[in-house]
Every structure is written in structure tokens, then in C-alpha cells.
Amino acid sequence: MAEPHTTEPVGEVADASALVPEQLGFMCGIEVHQQLATGKLHSRQPGLLYDITIETVPSDWKRFERKLRPARGEGGAIDIAARFESRRNRSFVYVQSPNAGLIELDDQPPLDHDEDAIQIALTVSALLEAKPVSLLQTMRKTVVDGSNTSGFQRTSLIATDGTLQTDGGPVGIDVLCLEEDSARKLDTLSTANGDQVIYNLDRLGLPLIEIATAPDVTSPEHAKVTSMALGRVLRQTRKVRRGLGSIRQDLNVSLACGDRVEIKGCQDLNWIPRIIRLEMSRQLHFYRLANELRSMLDLAPLPPDRRSDEAELESSIAAAVSEHLPLRLVDVSPSFDSCESKMVKGGRSKGHVMLGLPLAGLNGKIGIKELDKEGAQLPRLGRELAGAAKLAGVKGVFHSDELPAYGIEQEHVDDVRSALSLTPKDGFILCLAPQWQAELALESVLQRARRAWHRIPQEVRNVVVKKGAPDDGTTSPMRPLPGGARMYPETDVPSIVIDSDRWQSTMLSLPMSDQEREERMAGYDVSSDQAKQLVARELDDIYVDHVGEMPHKGWASVVLENDEAHPELCANVLKVKEQGEITRESMNDIIAAFAGQQPTLEQIAAYGEANGYKPADEGDLAATIQTIVEERSDFVKERGMGAMGPLMGVVMQTVGAADGKVVSALLRAAIQSKME
After folding, report:
1. Rounded mean pLDDT of 520-534?
2. CA spacing 20 to 30 A to 654: which of 14, 359, 480, 605?
3. What is the CA radius of gyration of the chain?
């Protein structure tokens, strides 16, 4: 292990792109969660996802309301994240989709593992050169946000100690697990007694492969490369789901002067380097702020490397800070009786109170919104304090560095400072909410304010998303980083032995690599672009399995243009076209018309004739084309072969159903004849 850093970290917080990872003790690992294309993991329900929003939930889907309470782990302790969640006073409503039964509602014990999911997980383990466990034991992992009806997620360790080869060097694979996906959030409603979160149960229980790398990622850019490499390995199985939300990346990031933070919500791989660099900037900023605050109280400085921290010293500093920042909440509502702010008047009309929290010595330290060199918000204590308050369910807080603003005038600020008995060096936080919620929010704010004298807290953060995309790459706090107390054995699911015979069978049946697939496609008469698209879109197996005696390029076009249609249907439509019964241009329409059916060749031909898709007789077609060319002989002589395009449209409009290639050949011959 390297020696701890003893020199102060260098770099400009406002220029995250210029920060040098090696100089800052950068460490990063990645967790990838990939949905598998199977049924659910511990129920035999189909793995369907329904395209609904809170506004479009069918009225006949039942709803169930629950409240979750924290449970003690195997060691008897309550996990820190679960303890925090229990104070938020949230309730949960679960919408029962058609593929959610008693197991999803936690009213029936789970079934054993989906066998296909286990085999896919073993295959990925082999591709990553990981070592399988001998006994697959399911564990319960406490989940605190209500996204699992049971309050926990079932997860099974499959393999450990693998290696992923990347362009930036090898990255170790610490663990590969098979686990249940969570329910999908539809909406959050604010009530007088706390938030009510509404979930759809369609996704709950879908199998996920979770892959956690070692902290071998060397840079923010290497993190993107590593994520892409993991995605390629998973897709190599051809048994994972595709599309938005089917794969999710979590980033574990730390600097020597900071601490480990887990960042969720990294859907777009192109954003990964920016998200990581902004987290580096945030950790650097709060390290420097901590030492500035320590100097203010004549406390020992924070070492530039967390490995040099002394627990006893940090404990004494925490005690000094707690004494400096006591919990003192004051009802300052009377100071706002004359306030014309819409937010304030609206809250007061609902019976909300305005509570104030004094923060001694923090005037000017909380910060106001500023942007870095690339337009992202610079880190500031005020944003972290607001994030802590929002976890209690309030929409936000007001703080002294940003006031007067939002309709709150200087006179109201002066009244608050007087009511809180503040000096010019002191800051304050205001929260407008029901009293119980305002108290909880300001308690959270105080805890985070006290942390400003220490390293950043270990926590889970979420990428700030607006209008469906990352806002600027910055993050907001979600919950404390879970500890070991969240795991305990699942007694309802039997253990599974992974013996050497099964592992050898897996090793002998590994899927082809992308290179092998490209080499296989080289044996067919298709264009290089078609071959690349078929492999990239994972359609090459369909192509190979059904090409038979069909024209190679024609079949490639049909597969690429109808990738969601049944292959047998597509093949039969192409066969009917090759028999001359329907036109090339009509094929996609006919495939769409027969979606979900398996018509015979005769039925396809009959449908084509009935709907005007049968090609015109070639003799009649040639005569029609000759007539059109003769009528426009001056145009043909003037434009030569340049007349092809305009006349092609005229011919197709005149003859209706016709094969474009045949029309093109006949028209070309007619024009050339006219020019001679």
C-alpha cells in the first residue's frame, strides 16, 4: 500500500477538467447492474415492463399501501441508512401490475432461482475469468427507500476475483452477484404526515447481474472505458436486456483528502468523466473548507490523506464542534407576518411554521450559486445543507448567505438575526414546513453543518437530472453509505451447489466474441456495413439461423429493418417476394400487418394481391415505361441519365405496385435506348 499523502492537494476547484487524478490520490471502482432477458428471479412471473406513467396506470390495477420499519442485521445492529430512512416518516403505495403476484407483494415465500438467470451469471463470470463460489447462498440486503415491498433485496454471490481487460489496462472484478431489481418509482406526493411514494411492481424481481470492480480505474476517462468494456462482456451473452434503464452504472469515487462516495444515476456513459471530475472538485473544496473552519476554532488541521486521521483527535474535534454548533431551533414565524413572499405566504396559510437554526461563525461560509469554467455549479456548503434538508421531505431551506431574496426582505433578515441573537459572523438556516418536518430537516442540516469540520461523509449521491438528462454533472445526497449490518441470510431460498461439472460445462459453451461473430458474417455476401450493424444490434444469430437459400443482402435488409418482428414471419415474406408475388417496397408493411401471426406463404401472397402489393406484369410495365419516356423525349435528351430520378417517381406513381429494382432496370434501358 502506498504511503499516505503528506503534501497539500493541488488544483483549482473551479477547473475540474484540469485536476490531476494521480496527484490527488484518486481511487475509483464501478458497479454495473444489468437486467437479464429472463423471467423474474424468485417468482415465475414474466419479465415484462409496462409503458405507463402515474397518469396512465390502468384503473383495474390494485394498489397496496405499506410503511417500512428497520430490521436488525445478523449482528444485531440496525444499518445506518435504514435508521436514517425510518425517521423520514414516508409511506409507500405499490401498484400491482399484471406480472406481480403474491411473491412481489411479499405475501408468499419466494421460489428458488430462475435457472436461466443462474446460467447467464455463470457465463458472465467465466467471460470475466472470475472464480465461482462452491455454494450459492442467497442473502437479504436491507433496502431503505421502499422500492422493495419486503424491505430487502435478495442477492446471491456467484463469483469473485476476476479480471476485465480494458484499453486502459486490466481492472479487477471483486464480486459478481445475481440479485433482484427494485420496483419503479411513479410519483412522490407530499402529505401533512410525510411523503407518499408510489411504485410500480412490474420491474420488481427482474434478475440483475451486479458486477463490482476493484478500485483499479485510473482516471475519469478510464471509468468510461471500463463501463463500456463491461457492457460489451454482458452483451456477449446475447441474453441481457437492451434499452434505457436496462443497465445502470454506480461510481465509487474518492480522493486521498476526501472519502468514498457512491454515485448513482449514471445512465449516459458519455457523462461519466464529467460526473467524476465534479466529484473530485467537490471533495477538494470541502477538504479546504474543513481546514478553514478548523483554523477559525483553533483546531488541529485535517491531514491531506484520510489514512493519517486519528480517531481520538477527530472525536475530540467533533465534540468541540458540537459545542460550537448546538441544536437550537427557534420559531421565527412572527418575523414573517408582513412578508409578501408567495412561498412564505403559501406555507403560512397551510399552518406551516418557520423555524430558524443559528450556525455560529458560518456567515459567508455557506456560499451562493457560482459556476465553474464549464458551467457547472461550484460546490458550496449551502447546497449540501439543502440536500440534507430535502432528505427529510422538505422542498428546500433558506440560508443567510443568499438572503434577502425570494421575496424575503432585509427587514425580515434583521428580525431573524435578532430573534436568534446572532453576531455579524454567524449564519442561519430557515425552514418553512409542518413543525415535525421542519425540526427533522433542521436536525439533518445541523448534522451536515457539523460535518463541514471533517472530511466529506461517506454517502450515496445521485446525479442531478432535469428534463430526463443530467443537469450539469453535479450530484445531490441520497442517504448515508450502507454498512455491513444491512446483510443477513435468506432462509426461504435453498442453497445451490456449483460443482466442477457445471462450471466445466459453462466454460465449454461460452458465447462467441464480437470478433468471431464478425468473422462468421464475412462468410456471407453482405456489405460490410450490413455485417457490422447485424453484429452491433445483436441480430447476426437471427440472420444466420434463417438465411438458408434466401438472397444474402436482401435477408440482411429485412432483418435490419424489422428487428422486432418474428424471424419466421420476415423470412416467409421475403420468400413470397422472391417468388414475384409481392413488391420489395411492400414487405415492411406486410410484416407489420401480420405482427404476432404466422401466416403461410399462400396467405401472404393473397394479402399482397388483395391490397395492391402484387407487382405489375413486366411486359405491361416495360410498355408503360416506354410510353412515359417517349412522352418526355425532349427532357430525356436534355438531361440524359440525369432524367432517371424524376422519371422514376413518375413511373412509380403511374404503375402503382411494382418492384423498384425492376422499374429502375427497365427505365435505365429505355432512357439509354432513347439517347442512342
Report:
1. 95
2. 605
3. 32
Distance CA 629, CA 608 (A): 29
Q: How far apart are CA 379 and CA 284, in angstroms?
A: 9
For residue 155, the 8-state DSSP code is E
Query: Is 670 strand, coil or helix?
Result: helix
Helix (H, G, I), strand (E, B) or coil at 330: strand
Query: What are the tens digits of pLDDT across the range 423-459?
Result: 999 999 999 999 999 999 999 999 999 999 999 999 9
**SS3 for 64-87, per residue?**
EEECCCCCECCCCCECHHHHHHHC
* Alpha-carbon gap, residue 363 to 419, rounded angstroms: 16
| Average pLDDT for 112-119 | 97
Between 433 and 641, the more confident residue is 433
Distance separating alpha carbons of residues 361 and 219, to the nearest angstrom: 37
Q: What is the mean pLDDT of the chain?
A: 92
pLDDT confidence tier of residue 645, bands split at 50, 70 and 90: confident
d(CA 68, CA 422): 40
Nearest to 303 by CA among 343, 269, 258, 339: 258
Report the 10 Å Cβ neighbour count for 13.
Answer: 19
Q: Give the DSSP H/E element, type plus range, for residue 608.
A: helix 601-610
Contacts with 228 (C-beta within 8 Å, 6 or more apart), sequence order: 269
Q: Read off φ and ψ for residue 63, nearest 5 degrees.
A: -125, 145
Q: Are 45 and 206 in contact (CB under 8 A)?
A: no
Confirm if 305 and 256 have CB atoms less than 8 A apart: yes
As assigned by CATH, the class of the 310-454 domain is alpha beta
Distance of alpha carbon 237 from alpha carbon 227, whole angstroms? 16
Q: Specify the DSSP class assigned to residue 92.
A: E
Please state whether beta strands 194-200 and 427-433 pair in parallel, antiparallel, or not at all (unpaired).
unpaired
Q: Alpha-carbon distance 29 to 43, whole Å?
A: 32
Cell numbers standing for residue 380 = 458550496
Per-residue pLDDT band for 260 (boundaries 50, 70, 90) equals: very high
Instruction: Please report the sign of the dihedral spanned by the C-alpha atoms of residue 343, residue 196, residue 182, residue 211.
Output: positive
Residues comprising the chain, all counted: 676
pLDDT at 669: 83
Question: Exposed, middle or buried by CB within 10 Å (0-12, 13-18, 19+), for 8?
Answer: exposed
Side chain identity, residue 435: Q
